[in-house]
Amino acid sequence: MKVNSYNSNNLISFQSKIKFVPQRVFREKEIFPFVGCKKRTEPLPSSIIQDREFHTSDIRTCTGGGLVDFDGVLGFHFLDCQENIEKVGNSLANIIDFRTRNNKSALLIGSKELSSRPDSVPLFERIRGIVASFVTPSVFKTHSNQLAESSIAYEKAADTWTIYTPLPKYPAYMPNEPFIDSLDSLLAAFKEIKIAPQDSLYIGEKQIQKSDCPRIFE
C-alpha cells in the first residue's frame, strides 16, 4: 500500500473548518449528493461517495466521515457490523489510496457504547487507524446519549464540514429542537473529541480556540 502524504511546501495556508450548526442551516446542505449506510451484504464502495460536496444523515451507531484532498472529498457512512469491520480491514486503505491523492484533512464521527451494538466502537477504531495512516483525522467519537445522532456535510468551495447534532435529552415535542450551540454542549455530546492541527472548530460562527479547551486540540 502506498500511503498518501502531502509535502509541507504544497500546504494551503488556511484550515479546514468544522462547524456545528442548527438544523435549519444543515438543511441548506441537503442539496449535496447523498450517501447512506447500506445493508451488511452490500459491497463497501456502495457506502462511499467521491465528489466536491456530499452529505449523510442519521449517523448513530455507524461511523461517518471522509477524507479531503485538493479535488474534493471521499465521504462515507458505514453500518456497524462484523462484516464491515472485515471489509474495512481488507479494502478501505486500497480504496483511499486509489481514489485520493495528497489528503490534507479528514473527519470521523459516530459510534455508541451499547451492548446491543458490539461492533459500533470497534468499527470506528478500525476506520480511525486506517484513515490516520493517510492523514490525522479530527475525531468525534461515541455519542454520549444513547438516542443521539449526527448529520454531516462537506463543501469543497468553503472547505467546511457542517455538522448537526440535536440534543435528544429534551422532549421531542419542543418547537425548536436543541442542538450543539456551546462548547459545554459539544463536550457533553461525545466521549472523545480531537481536532487535528490542520482543522479549525466553530460552533455556529464562533471559533473555538485551543486556549478555550486545550485537551481537544491535537
General shape: globular
Spatial order of strands in the largest sheet? 3-8-9-1-11-12
The helix/strand class is alpha+beta
Helix content: 10-25%
Beta strand %: 25-35%
Helix and strand pattern: EHEEEEHEHEEEHEEE
Number of strand segments: 12
Could you state the oligomeric state of the chains shown?
A: single chain
Count of helical regions: 4
Write down the overall mean pLDDT.
91
Rg is 16 Å
Tell me the span between the first and last alpha carbons: 26 Å
Summarize the main sheet: 6 strands, mixed
Q: Stretches where pLDDT falls below 50 for ≥5 residues?
A: 1-13
Detailed description of the structure:
The two termini are 26 Å apart. The strands form two sheets. A six-stranded mixed β-sheet has the order 3-8-9-1-11-12, with no helix packed on it. 19% of the residues lie in helices and 29% in strands. The protein is an alpha+beta fold. It is globular and about 40 Å long. The N terminus is likely disordered. β4 and β5 form a beta hairpin.
